[in-house]
Amino acid sequence: MTSTPIMTATEQPKYCYIVTGANSGIGLEATKQLASYLHLRNEKSVTIYMLCRSEERTRAAMATIGTPDILQFLKFDGSDSAETIQNHCVDKLPDGIKVEGILLNAGGFGDNKKQQKDKKQQSSSTTSNNSLSKDDVPVASSIAQANLIGHAILIDRLLKADKIDSSTRIVASGSEAAFASGVPMDFDKADFDGILQGTASLGGIPGVEYGWTKALLALYWAAFARHHPDLFVVTVSPGSVTTTNLLRQGGVNPFLRTVSKMAMFLGGSHQESVAAKRYIDALLGEERASQESGSFWASRKGYTKDYGDVSNLTICKFLKDVTLQEKAWNAVRKFVPL
Ligand SMILES: NC(=O)c1ccc[n+]([C@@H]2O[C@H](COP(=O)([O-])OP(=O)(O)OC[C@H]3O[C@@H](n4cnc5c(N)ncnc54)[C@H](OP(=O)(O)O)[C@@H]3O)[C@@H](O)[C@H]2O)c1
């Protein structure tokens, strides 16, 4: 747990937290819990940056949080180019500000197929090569952009700008769908590049792309922890919550919504406050004694019970496989321009 000195009204904030997808659902609840925690500690030198797609929705969300003075909106979309993420987010942080924690919460099922197609067409029209974006990197699927690629770029750019260091706690949003969807997943044979580009054949089973994306996410952050042994990152699943906008996202068709609701009914669900506390405990280091960098914490029973490190579960042995971690690392890094 960190301790932040109190500043006078004329000073610039010296410390900050970053939350992506902070305008809705578990991200909003986590922002509320964080703001309340900082307020109770009278942490006036702190800003919470809410990195979201819509300023309007974020301003409305801010109005529901009791401490609007410590909140700031920055525009962030996981489908943005690295240059845009640099301009809109990284360059907007004041010089010398210390980033205490980053909650990479944005994500879900992505946009619907039509939007994906539009984005690919839009992207290919700006370049001479149809499979490359204007950054000369491949174009990721909407679901990969939302959960993983935008976040990988954000952390990469913050690192390059010296805005994060060994005391920054990075928390990525995982899901039990990475291992408990009931669909067999052959990690050795799987085409990680194709999964991230949305071109891999995944059998047409509803929701399976989400499970694969969250699995690759956990492998990527495990690899990141090995590549950056001085930094701290943990993947945390908030557990199943039915009251958020997750199942209303564009990438969820009526059939997938029904299947997901049934899975959540059978696997259990809990309140947004309980889900968000998992994030906050990890962000503030409440679990520091037991959470290792690179680990994946989730429900070990169903979708809400027995919260802990899942890497020792038989079904999760892929997480510790360094070859698979590197396979995910290499696949994701293709989308992160140098
Ligand atoms: N609910 C669950 O049962 C559950 C279980 C395990 C894991 N999770 C994970 O928890 C996280 C939060 O989900 P939630 O249930 O709170 O759903 P939610 O209410 O739909 O919140 C998702 C947030 O992510 C943002 N977002 C989506 N795509 C984005 C993109 N391309 N770029 C930037 N922001 C984007 C959304 O922004 P807009 O408001 O602009 O759409 C929204 O703020 C997700 O990563 C989800 O996968 C949820």
Automatic annotation (TrEMBL):
This is Short-chain dehydrogenase. The keyword Plastid does not apply. It comes from Nitzschia inconspicua. The lineage of its organism: Eukaryota, Sar, Stramenopiles, Ochrophyta, Bacillariophyta. One of its GO terms (molecular function) is oxidoreductase activity. Residues 111-121 have a biased composition (Basic and acidic residues). Residues 122-132 have a biased composition (Low complexity). Keywords: NADP, Oxidoreductase. It comes from the Eukaryota. Belongs to the short-chain dehydrogenases/reductases (SDR) family. Residues 109-135 are annotated as: Disordered.
